[in-house]
Specification:
Blueprint: H1 4-23, H2 34-48, H3 58-65, H4 73-79
Length: 90
C-alpha cells in the first residue's frame, strides 16, 4: 500500500528529474525547486542506503545518480563499490 504522502513524494521526485532533463540544454531556464531537489536527494540517499559521500549539489547528484551525468574517475574512486550501483533511478 502506498500512502498519499508517498505518492506525492514519488510524483515530486519524478517531476523534478524530468524538469532537470527539460532544462539541461537551456542554461537560462529556471531549474527545479529546492524542495523538489531535496526530495530527490532524500530518495536517492535512501536507495543508496546512506548519504552520498561526495560534495555534490542536489541537481548534479540527481543527474549522476540517474545516469544523466557520467561519473569521473575521481568520483568513482570516492564512491567505491557504490559507483557500480548507479544509476539508482533510470
Amino acid at each position: 500500500m502506498l500512502t498519499a504522502a508517498d505518492l506525492l513524494t514519488t510524483l515530486a521526485v519524478e517531476a523534478t528529474i524530468h524538469h532537470l532533463d527539460l532544462v539541461a540544454r537551456l542554461p537560462s531556464a529556471p531549474g527545479p525547486s529546492a524542495p523538489g531537489l531535496a526530495a530527490v536527494r532524500a530518495t536517492l540517499d535512501g536507495l543508496l542506503g546512506r548519504p552520498v559521500p561526495l560534495d555534490w549539489d542536489d541537481a548534479y547528484y540527481a543527474r549522476a545518480a540517474t545516469g544523466r551525468a557520467r561519473l569521473t574517475s575521481a568520483e568513482r574512486r570516492a564512491l567505491g563499490p557504490d559507483a557500480d550501483r548507479l544509476p539508482l533511478l533510470g
